[in-house]
Amino acid sequence: MSLQTPSPGTTRAEPASGATGLTSALRGVDWRNYAIFVGFAVVFALFAVLLADDGFLTSVNLLNIFRQTAMISVMAVAVTFVIAAAQIDLSVGSVAGLASVVAAMAMSSGNTLIGVLAGLAVGVVVGAINGGLVTFFGIPSFLVTLAMMGIALGVAQWISNSGPVPILNDSFNSIFGGGNIGPVPSLLVWTVAFVAVGAVVLSKTRFGRQVLATGGNPVAAAFTGVNTRRITFSVMMLSAVAASVAGMLYAGRLESGRYQWGDGDELSVIAAVILGGTSLFGGNGSVVRALFGSLLVGVINNGLVLAGLDVSQQQVVRGAIIIIAVALTRRK
């Protein structure tokens, strides 16, 4: 059988140019960038169906999820910068607890401003120590912040005698977590403010571009004039200060300072950031996706509680989430 060749007057069938363009566009999309949105929608819908009789979709429960995840979201904004710069901060939870205790003790005089400044001072001091040890002494951030996690927890427990420090300042409690601005919880306002500022800084400013450059290739970044040491110091400082704000949000919401506030939050924060698509190897990051990562962690925790699982089982699930997230977002 002989092969037929097209006659001079005929042409081969070509795929439609529109279909070709669409196919090419779809091939160029990195679906990992949108995995967090899809995952959040799927998990939310799943719990909405399975836990409908348990009140999952009630306005009270949904607002409670926002309140419970506000501190995680605030810390996740700053930790996005840290991980995008190819560093890590394991001390955020303990720093939050220490800041809550220090702010509560400083407000024993009844002065709100003194309490806020004292809480922020915790973040500044811890950030300076973490950043200095990493940038000037070359100690890996993993080891520095792991040590600081224990130090901050121990100091908070020590100065509070392992007990809660009550906060009777209504102004502080209202601003930092317990009040509302109209119908909107103040914790939601804090979350939106941090996410908005963080998203703009990371994606639209010179500092944000330098953070990503430092995480992507520090040698190349240094050759282009980026002070990589300054960037590393800055992101470690930002992380500690954001943790101190989160600690004061805990204190305001729960009307007391306690060393346990923030305990274990470093796991949830890192899970939120990694679920948001930020690579552990640095060089990329998204504050908005980190927000959805924290909301996903919050929805999962809330759903597991409504389903009757205890805290230890929730910890197991969060650990599994980190492993899955790293596997799905790992870039070759």
UniProtKB/TrEMBL annotation:
One of its GO terms (cellular component) is plasma membrane. It holds the Pfam family BPD_transp_2. Keywords: Cell inner membrane, Cell membrane, Membrane, Transmembrane, Transmembrane helix, Transport. The chain crosses the membrane at residues 34-53, 65-86, 98-126, 133-160, 180-202, 231-252, 290-309. It is found in: Cell membrane. One of its GO terms (molecular function) is transmembrane transporter activity. It is a multi-pass membrane protein. This is ABC transporter permease. It comes from Saccharopolyspora hirsuta.
